[in-house]
Design goal:
The protein has 235 residues and is mainly α. The protein is 76% helix and 0% strand. The protein folds into 2 domains: 148 residues, no CATH class; 66 residues. It is globular, with a radius of gyration of 21 Å.
């Protein structure tokens, strides 16, 4: 599953992996704002893709794997793009798909270079409400619960000689999966309460920003702003 792969990627070692999570979030926001406000032409899209590609290569992330996973947003973006296309605005439809894809790839690059505890702590440091960060933590952890249950069901089916899952069996399998996952989640919650869970998870302490972090922040924001100005002027 995607989140398992991202967890493995986030344990890597690179210049971007070593940067403070708060800095990476701010640079991502600058990139997303610049991308969202740019009249996206093919040339502008290529420039934004190139900047993102440099970051992915610098982070030593698998470019093909990340590009494939970013395509998960295309069915949703494509639905809205279809309405623009039917309205006769093909340029807007293409821009919507391209911006959605590049935004998803940029977010995956952040998740692939930052562990979830560091990312959540950085969000809290930047003023994100604690309730929202708590929901993010539980959602992320329960994805692993669902993944574990799905793997157990798959192994059990293979042990019983089951082959490829048929469409007619998909609904029953999904219901069983979420039923078992819910039961497992209830058990985890009970264990957390027994260990004194009081509505929040202990997170990593804030680290001081180093010179490399500040330099990366300035360079990243400057690159996004410069790209926005250049592509806006060209448009």
């Amino acid at each position: 599953m995607h989140h398992v792969v991202l967890e493995r990627w986030s344990r890597g070692a690179s210049f971007l992996h070593s940067r403070d999570a708060r800095v990476k979030i701010l640079v991502l926001l600058a990139y997303l704002v610049a991308l969202a406000t740019t009249p996206l032409t093919p040339a502008a899209g290529a420039c934004y893709a190139a900047l993102l590609g440099v970051a992915i290569v610098a982070a030593r992330l698998p470019l093909a794997g990340l590009a494939l996973r970013a395509a998960a947003v295309l069915p949703f973006a494509g639905t809205f793009a279809l309405f623009s296309l039917l309205a006769g605005d093909g340029a807007r439809a293409a821009s919507l798909v391209a911006k959605s894809y590049l935004s998803a790839a940029a977010a995956l690059a952040l998740a692939g270079t930052t562990s979830m505890p560091k990312l959540v702590r950085a969000l809290e440091s930047l003023g994100v409400p604690r309730f929202l960060t708590l929901v993010i933590q539980f959602l992320y952890r329960y994805l692993f619960v669902i993944s574990e249950q799905a793997q157990h069901m798959r192994l059990a089916a293979l042990a019983r000689g089951g082959g490829r899952l048929r469409f007619t069996h998909a609904a029953g399998a999904a219901a069983t999966l979420f039923g078992r996952s819910y039961s497992r989640a209830e058990g985890i919650h009970g264990a957390m309460l027994a260990r004194g869970f009081h509505g929040r998870m202990e997170l990593l302490a804030d680290a001081r920003l180093g010179a490399a972090d500040v330099l990366f922040l300035v360079a990243g924001v400057a690159a996004a702003v410069a790209l926005r100005l250049m592509t806006g002027a060209a448009a």
